[in-house]
Specification:
alpha+beta; OB fold (Dihydrolipoamide Acetyltransferase, E2P); 2 domains; binds adenosine-5'-triphosphate; 8 helices
């Protein structure tokens, strides 16, 4: 459905995207995950046509779109700058999005009201964009993109300005509409929980390169390298250097109370249903979960389960 072949992007001498090839299936919810500056937005802008590739090819539904402008690529987009017309009310903004659709005015209004209700922006339809908060603008931008039911949707951190409750309901809504209308979606985030929760597959990129592509469970259980492992899971995996190897272990796999290792608790944070304990052990810092508060400075014994061994690099 969407194919990238050896896509590379230079900004001057800087290689922001490095030989990326991807196959995104029709109707797939495909996540691009990476740390800040890894190239996520650039990758999305290349697919949208907002940036030109330095080399490589991009195909959408078997059409080579590499040299086509954004307007000819037939994709919906929600980017961080919300792209609302400032001198049009929200309702009119959404109407413009439906301009070229061959459906009746009634049907258009119905669609707008439906989606507005779901994203809780009904009471904003009569306002101008500059009368809205960042989070409200973001919801309007999502509504404007979804109301079209495009074949392909590109979303760059579309929920970053929403508070927790809205973020959860909005992402469920995005997923539901995406499934209902079989919209192939590429969704950029740096939030690994969000990626695991809603992705059909996740692509982890770092320094412009693809590190791993896989289902959430695969990426979580079998991270290809230390970079992927460090990005996935919260609280994050700890890394210990032992005999030239790097051992990665998730906090829930550090068993406190008994075992061959002994360390000192350097910090204890309350995380709601558990405490997150930081243990100092031979120049390593290990995160563990505890049901009870443990005093800083205490000695603890522990064991490690289900750890991963990585090459000492990256
Ligand atoms: N127009 C540009 N000119 C020069 N360098 C750029 C340009 N756009 C992006 N870059 C560089 O390319 C790299 C990737 O940027 P990009 O915005 O794609 O990262 P990102 O993963 O989306 O980051 P974030 O999560 O912080 O938004 C960065 O080092 C950035 O400085």
């Amino acid at each position: 459905m969407i194919k990238l072949r050896n896509v590379t992007k230079f900004f001057g001498n800087f290689k922001a995207i490095d030989d990326v090839s991807l196959d995104i299936e029709k109707g797939e919810f495909f996540i691009v995950l990476g740390r800040s500056g890894s190239g996520k937005t650039t990758l999305l802008r290349l697919i949208a046509g907002l940036e030109k590739v330095s080399s490589g090819k991009i195909y959408i539904e078997d059409n080579d779109v590499t040299d086509l402008p954004p307007s000819k690529r037939d994709v919906g987009m929600v980017f961080q700058n919300y792209a609302l017309y400032p001198n049009k009310k929200v309702f009119e903004n959404m109407m413009i999005a439906l301009e070229n659709l061959n459906i009746s005015k009634n049907e258009k209004e119905k669609r707008i009201l439906e989606i507005a209700k779901e994203l809780d922006i009904e009471n904003l339809l009569d306002k101008y964009p500059n009368q809205l908060s960042g989070g409200q603008q973001q919801r309007v931008a999502i509504a404007k993109a979804l109301v079209k039911r495009p074949k392909v949707m590109l979303m760059d951190e579309p929920l970053s300005n929403l508070d927790v409750q809205l973020r959860y309901s909005a992402r469920k809504l995005i997923k539901r509409i995406q499934r209902e209308f079989d919209i192939t979606t590429i969704y950029v985030t740096h939030d690994s929980n969000e990626a695991l929760a809603i992705g059909d597959r996740i692509c982890v990129i770092d320094r412009g390169k693809v590190m791993q592509v896989g289902k959430p469970e695969e990426i979580y259980e079998n991270p290809a390298n230390e970079i992927v492992a460090s990005l996935i899971g919260s609280p994050p995996m700890s890394f210990l250097k032992i005999d030239g190897k790097v051992i990665g272990v998730r906090p829930d796999n550090v068993i406190l109370g008994d075992g061959p290792y002994e360390g000192i608790v350097s910090n204890c944070e309350f995380w709601g249903s558990y405490y997150l304990i930081y243990i100092e052990y031979n120049d390593n810092e290990i995160r563990a979960l505890s049901k009870v508060r443990i005093r800083e400075g205490s000695k603890v014994r522990f064991n490690l389960m289900n750890y991963k061994v990585f090459e000492n690099e990256g």
